[in-house]
């Protein structure tokens, strides 16, 4: 076999020509390859494949300059298509994948995330007519949360599905009026509220005029590239085999943008539909004005409306002399959304890189540690020095794959300890990696607290990933040996389950620390209410106007006592005592019991959507609605049933609850129990998981001649609970007093207490809300 060196030229029998460096018979190094059809590649080679930096020209006048890998467009580069469109960004295996910017022939521009050639993730699309959308995408269509601003100034902020407004949101008109409500497939559907711009009849008399002016500005434009994007990128030549005989054969790989076409009627005509709807409401409002005096300047007019598939079927006009807190927050948010939304792109890109880097790092370290034979942990497996460190360059290395993130440094803390913890929690390494590192990826959650941490949820809801402060990571690593011993000794621990601790360092950027935890609300049952309970009354309430089903409420918001099976109650408080004693030994304070409630009769939950202190009062002690009045207790028909545990029929719902014994129930003879739930099936009862109880809410107290009558409303509920926020250590008293002095606070008035007192207060509070049945 002929061995060619550098600077040689070879002409193949099919007319292809290569000139450059060789390794044996294969192009290797720098060289230029010209195909007989006119395609030309000039750049770096590695063992017969285009790998490294290079540039390729196609006969169609399309060009690409950037990174190649294994014969594919792979990495970062600039692609100019024959139609004049320009893409600059990340590519993977010939497809746009990662962060990129595309300029279309009609001057539309998209900046954001791509997935296998389609717009997916966070991104910004600017139409040539001035319309702008910033938000999330799926399969090249607007899906999820996003903001659309039309060129005439109208703006919608809310949820989308398949390119249409779908879900809750608000629409801000150019004149400053707002509509808050819900949409279904692009049409208003359900109740909503319209807030005019200004007050009194001045707005109403000008409403139709303004509507006609806006309508003139919104003639549909069908020039969007989203209608016609189905261009095909020219063939990319690559070798079919690494074994090259007498002739150097090349294959081809054809690929396309795959960005689906999308009808852009919504981009302007939907704004017209909004205006037509507003004109209709102005007619209704005008008829009201004809019989009323002008509203005082210090009053606000609001229109409560109800729509059915885009048709206004009901309207009620309200005069509000004082705006509610919720209304103020809505209007404040609406006014600020223009300013805040346009900054989201940078933050979205940074979050994208963090997610991608996190997945790459976890896949690498779990894959590296899993083949190591299982053994007991040693003292050397703990501490900050027990770690795996690795550099992940974007181009890849001998130990790491090429990727679409930016260069980053990865650190995995105590990998052997967390590997054993995952085994204790019965987590399969492959399932763990697929849940966090699978193609469906991670989704970002809004932070439920004041910590400012980022939260990510795995696509199957099994795992929560939270960013940590440096001090919190130190606490975790310091307590890890005792934590490991505690969870190993107690299968039923309620303390947060930790599966990994990691750090990402972006080049020229700050270090970001993460911890992977189990999601205790990973269940097939809907969680109707969430509470974060500390056993304190200091600031532990939620503003009434901010409460909805997704709100995490606090101690003073809890309006229930819970009664459960005697054996379940004993098991719960036995473990609470063990867990709080462990936290006390580690000087941990400020932890919480996270409590989730599933109400078995959601059709009775209308009152639950109101703030706790506004729950309806019973009008008469003799009335019983949806229940039976027995003595002084209003009891709803029971819908939960404890039965003897049977391993076979039990629901195999995945979650972080696999480890832990099945609890025994007193009501079935102290046998292991399953929970039967109508319409759901059979669920295994574990500590903190699928625990049935009755939630008692006191409705009223009344006194008769000699007795006091108490009336309760009782709901069947399923409880989910666990101890969270365990990474806050007690500060020394001198530091507290010094802080108090500097801020002119009385040291006795602050809520920080010693671990022993905190633990005692915590358990005492839980005993009140979970009283033992007589």
The gist of it:
The chain is α+β, with helices and mostly antiparallel strands.
What does this structure look like?
This protein is α+β, with helices and mostly antiparallel strands. It has ten helices and 41 strands. The protein has a 20-stranded antiparallel sheet that branches. Helix 4 (344-369) packs antiparallel against helix 6. One of its GO terms (cellular component) is plasma membrane. This is Phosphatidylinositol 4-phosphate 5-kinase. It catalyses: a 1,2-diacyl-sn-glycero-3-phospho-(1D-myo-inositol 4-phosphate) + ATP = a 1,2-diacyl-sn-glycero-3-phospho-(1D-myo-inositol-4,5-bisphosphate) + ADP + H(+).
Rounded to an integer, what's the Rg over CA atoms?
Answer: 32 Å
Global geometry = globular
Q: Mean pLDDT, as a whole number?
A: 75
Number of strands: 41
Give the biggest beta sheet.
Answer: 20 strands, antiparallel
Identify low-pLDDT runs: 199-224, 227-234, 237-299, 337-346, 602-637, 743-751
Q: Which structural class is indicated by helix and strand composition?
A: alpha+beta
Share of residues in helices: 10-25%
| Span of the ends, CA to CA | 93 Å
Which percent band covers the strand fraction? 35-45%
Count of alpha/pi helices? 10
Secondary structure layout plus pairing:
Elements: E1 8-11, E2 17-23, E3 26-34, E4 40-46, E5 49-57, E6 63-69, E7 72-80, E8 86-92, E9 95-103, E10 109-115, E11 118-126, E12 132-138, E13 141-149, E14 155-161, E15 164-172, E16 178-184, E17 187-188, E18 190-195, H1 201-217, E19 232-238, E20 251-256, H2 265-290, E21 300-308, E22 311-320, H3 325-341, H4 344-369, E23 387-392, E24 408-413, H5 415-424, H6 429-437, E25 442-445, E26 455-458, E27 463-468, H7 470-489, E28 498-506, E29 511-518, E30 529-533, E31 552-553, E32 561-563, H8 566-585, E33 592-599, E34 628-630, E35 633-635, E36 641-644, E37 664-665, E38 671-677, E39 681-684, E40 691-703, E41 708-724, H9 733-742, H10 755-769
Parallel strand pairs: 30-31, 35-41
Antiparallel strand pairs: 1-2, 2-3, 3-4, 4-5, 5-6, 6-7, 7-8, 8-9, 9-10, 10-11, 11-12, 12-13, 13-14, 14-15, 15-16, 16-17, 16-18, 18-21, 19-20, 21-22, 23-24, 24-28, 25-26, 26-27, 27-29, 28-29, 30-33, 32-40, 33-41, 34-35, 36-38, 37-38, 38-39, 40-41
Helix pairs in contact: 1-2, 4-6, 8-10
